[in-house]
Write a structure and sequence with these properties.
Strand order of the largest sheet: 14-15-16-17-18
Radius of gyration: 23 Å
Largest sheet: 5 strands, mixed
Strand content: over 45%
Number of helices: 6
Structural class: mainly beta
Shape: globular
Oligomer: single chain
Length: about 475
């Protein structure tokens, strides 16, 4: 048995030949529940954090992957479960946390200059507001909340971590009209739905994108979409510098007949709005240009038609009796799709759109969505707001879905060809070959994918980067 660690490490080198090892992180970390990372856009420095039983360990690297400091900080009390965002001042990193009910807030600070780590609960509470999510922009954390019974969004800026400031964004009565042009409150649209934060320009699982409410961030620009209505997609744009807002309503394709059985959803990517609508008899797929608001392309097929939009088999994954199976007909695909939460995701690579359509169902393995976050290990903190890429990957590899993926050119015409492996596929295959990994994280350094994991057998945390 004493030779097992050497054998294990040899296996890692063999299976990881398509990747480059950055480093092995040795240390007395104890039981590592989870890992996460933060990045400094000014210097290129990044930090890896490992959550132990009652401490959080931080290891700071420069952009050349050279370690420049490490220390630990005491964890906050167990009621603080979610990391919302971070702030970096030189070699001082502050992590903002809250409780799952969104009422209480706290900080964990890592000062790599003085080699001290501290934690404290803030004198700041949220009451009478639903916490939607948090975003990071320009080294600032913005907490996004929805006041009860309102048509207003509140943005709490944590530029001063100890004393957040509030900006109120109020909407007009005419901003959210229903199919009969009656005014709706934003609260009525968002109150019963989970919000899912989507990583722009990356592969996204149907578990994430099948949510009715989605949040997209591209720098200072936020896009909040709602598909709670069968007839429309509401698209809300907010500028984080000026807090100017814009609301638009995009009609969905129509289907004759019984509408109670309809399933609809949408996805935003590359300046376009993609809409999917289906029942057990028909599927329609529409694409809008978000700038001109004109329809670029529309597809329609029935359960008797060939499913010509696909470049993959109809795949069902994560079922109770068989983890992977392939379906044969359009009729089977439609029936399975409308039996779950319908969704689609769009990933553009080298000028070609990879568009995945289908639906997902809750998987009984401990993985749940919490405000766009992945939680599964008891006691582990939720890190989706700062590590959306990791959350997207975790859901991607733990899917319970039925789906197809099709290839489309720049004009959104379907094209023939084999769907290429995306970065998530590469990482998933590598880690499955290794086995025994936990506390995985994925991030980018200068547009290069980096992933890390804790190997339980040898108690080492390893970092790798993918070949470009």
């Amino acid at each position: 048995m004493k030779f097992l660690p050497l054998y294990f490490l040899f296996g890692v080198v063999f299976t990881m030949q398509s990747q480059i090892k950055i480093t092995d992180i040795h240390g007395n970390f104890g039981k590592v529940k989870q890992s996460f990372n933060v990045e400094d856009s000014k210097t290129g420095n990044f930090a890896i954090f490992l959550e132990g039983n009652d401490q959080v360990f931080g290891i700071l690297y420069n952009k050349n992957f050279e370690e420049i400091g490490r220390l630990s900080a005491p964890d906050l009390s167990s009621k603080f479960k979610s990391i919302l965002g971070y702030q970096i001042e030189g070699k001082n990193i502050s992590l903002l946390m809250n409780t799952l009910n969104g009422r209480s807030y706290g900080l964990i600070r890592f000062d790599f200059e003085t080699e001290t780590g501290t934690s404290q609960e803030l004198d700041f509470k949220i009451k009478g507001e639903k916490v939607l999510d948090a975003v990071n922009y320009n080294n600032n954390v913005y907490l996004l909340t929805l006041p009860t019974f309102s048509s207003q969004l509140n943005f709490y800026s944590f530029k001063n971590m100890l004393k957040p400031t509030l900006t109120e964004v109020a909407f007009d009565k005419a901003d959210f009209l229903d199919r009969k042009d009656r005014s709706r409150r934003l609260y009525d649209i968002l109150k019963d739905s989970e919000i899912s934060s989507v990583e722009v320009g990356e592969p996204n699982s149907l578990e994430l994108t099948s949510k009715k409410i989605k949040l997209y961030q591209n720098g200072k620009n936020l896009i909040l979409t709602s598909d709670d209505a069968i007839e429309f997609t509401y698209v809300i744009n907010i500028d984080l510098q000026t807090f100017e807002k814009n609301v638009r309503r995009f009609e969905k394709p129509t289907i004759d007949g019984f509408k109670m059985a309809l399933r609809t959803n949408s996805f935003v990517d590359d300046g376009k709005l993609f809409q999917l609508i289906a029942n057990s008899d028909i599927l329609k797929f529409r694409i809008y240009d978000l700038t001109s608001e004109e329809i670029i392309k529309e597809y329609s097929l029935t359960d008797d038609d060939e499913l010509y939009l696909k470049n993959t088999p109809i795949v069902q994954e994560g079922g109770d009796f068989k983890a992977y199976r392939e379906l044969e007909t359009t009729n089977q695909f439609l029936r399975k799709t409308v039996a779950g939460d319908i969704g689609l995701s769009v990933y553009k690579s080298e000028g070609t759109y990879q568009i995945t359509m289908g639906s997902t169902a809750e998987k009984e393995n401990g993985y749940v969505i919490m405000g766009g976050a992945l939680g599964g290990m008891v006691g582990a903190i939720v890190v989706s707001s700062i590590n959306q890429l990791t959350t997207s990957y975790s859901l991607y590899k733990n899917t319970k879905s039925v789906k197809i993926t099709g290839l489309f050119n720049e004009d959104l015409n379907h094209v023939e060809g084999e769907v290429p492996e995306n970065p998530f596929d590469t990482i998933k295959t590598s880690l499955e070959k290794i086995g025994g990994t936990q506390a995985e994280t994925i991030f980018k350094v200068e547009d290069q994918y980096v992933f890390g994991y804790f190997a339980k057998k040898v108690e080492i945390y390893s970092l790798y980067k993918l070949y470009k």
